[in-house]
Amino acid sequence: MHFSSKAISVCLLAGTLMPAAAMGDITYGFSRISANAPIDVAGQLFVKVTDLVDSVQFHVWNDGPLDSSITRIYFDDNADVTNGISDLLWGTQAGVRFSVGATPPYLPGGRGISPKFVASFATDSDSPVQPNGLNPGEWLDIVVDLKSGNTFEDLADALTRRDLILGLHVQGIMPDGGDYSDAFVSDKPQTPVNPIPAPGAALLGMLGLTMVGAVKRRFQ
Question: What global pTM score does this model have?
Fold first, then answer.
C-alpha cells in the first residue's frame, strides 16, 4: 500500500491547520505555616493563574465555609520574572477593597520557614481589614506584569518549583468564638500544568483524517 502525493499533501495541509497548544489556567492550593487557630482553613484557599500575554492574572479566592478573611497577599518572586502589581479588580463585591502595598511589608510567620519568605510586593485590604478582606465566597484579581523576555510558562514553572511563592495572611478565623490569624503559602498545582489544546484543534484533526481517508480511497 502506498500514499499518493495528493494524499501526503492533504496530511501536510491538515498539520498546518492545527493550532499550537495553549497554556491553560492553573490552580494552586495553600499550606499553613503557622498554627495559631485550632483549625486549618488551608483547604478553602486557592489561587488561579491566567495568561494575559504580557501579564498574568492571579485570581485569589476564599471558598469557605469556615469564617476567615484573607487580608494580605504577598509575592516572593525569587525567580525575578515579574514587575509587580499593575491592577486590582474585585468587580461589584461590596465587601472587598484592596490597595497595593501591605502593613507589615512582610508575611507574618514567613521568616520562620526555610527558606525565608521575602516579600517582593504585596496588597492588603483597606480598613476595616476583615470586612474588606476576602471572606467566604469572595475573590480578588491581581494583575501582575511580566518582566521582558518572560512568559506565562516561565511564571508557571517558577510557581511549581516554588521559586515564586504567594503568601496569605488570614484573619478572623473563629471556630469557637475566638479570633485567630494564620499565615499560608502557595502549594502544588491543583490542576495539570500540561498545555491544553486550543479550541478547534481536535475538530481540525478529525477533518484532516477524514480528507486523507477520502483521498486514499480515490487513488487506491
Answer: 0.77
